[in-house]
Amino acid sequence: MITYDKLKEKPQVFKRITGVTITEFDDLYQKFCSMWARAESMRLSHPNRQRAVGAGNHYTLALPQLLLMSLVWLHLSLSGEALGFFFGIDEGTVSRNTRRVLPVLRKISDATFGWPEPPKRREGKGLEQALHDNPDLLAIIGATELPITEPSDNA
Which residue among 17, 36, 107, 113 is the one 20 to 30 A from 146 at the CA level? Predict the structure, then answer.
C-alpha cells in the first residue's frame, strides 16, 4: 500500500508518481486542510440531513492519503481499480473520495499546477499498464504486512 510516509523517503519516486515535489506537496497540504474543512462542513450541513453531522462512515484514508491518492490519480491517469489496489481501498471508495477531493484541489492549485482533466470512467490505465509505465510503483508496494499470531502463554 502506498503511504505518504513511505513515499516521502524516496523523493524522486514521489515526484515521478505525483507530479510534485515533497515540499510542494507539504505546501499544498497546508492550503488543502483549511479548504477541505470548509468544503466538508458545507457538504454535511444541508437542510434535509437525516443524521447528525459526524454520524455514518468515516474516510478510510487519512487526509494526507486522500490528497496523495488524488495527485497520483491526476498525474498517472490510473483507473479506480488500480488506485484502489495501490492505496488499499475498493474502487467505489476511490471514486467517492477523489470526487470530493478534486473540487477542493482545483480551488487551491489551478494557478500553480494547472491539473489535467482526470480520466473518465473506464478510461484510466489499468494495473498492468500502470506498472509497465511506472516501474517505481513496484518499489513502493514491494513489501507485504502479515499478521503474526503470538502464543497466548509466555512459556
Answer: 17
Beta bridge pairs of residue 125? 78
Domain that residue 103 falls in: 4-46+63-140
27-37 pLDDT, tens digit per residue, is 988 988 888 77
Report yes or no on 123 lying in a domain. yes
The answer to whether residue 148 sits within a structural domain is no
Angle, vertex CA 84, rays to CA 118 and CA 80, nearest 5: 30
Distance between first and last Cα of the chain? 35
Residue 144 sits at φ, ψ, to 5 deg, of: -125, 130
Kind and range of the H or E element at 82?
Answer: helix 80-87
Q: Which cell goes with 148?
A: 503474526
Assign 88 a pLDDT band (cuts: 50, 70, 90).
confident
Rounded to 10 deg, the angle between the 63-76 and 11-18 helix axes is 60
Residue 33: in which H helix or E strand, if any?
Answer: helix 22-44
53 occurs within a structural domain: no
Dist CA 120 CA 67 (whole Å):
19
- Global confidence as pTM: 0.67
Per-residue confidence (pLDDT) for residue 26, from 0 to 100: 92
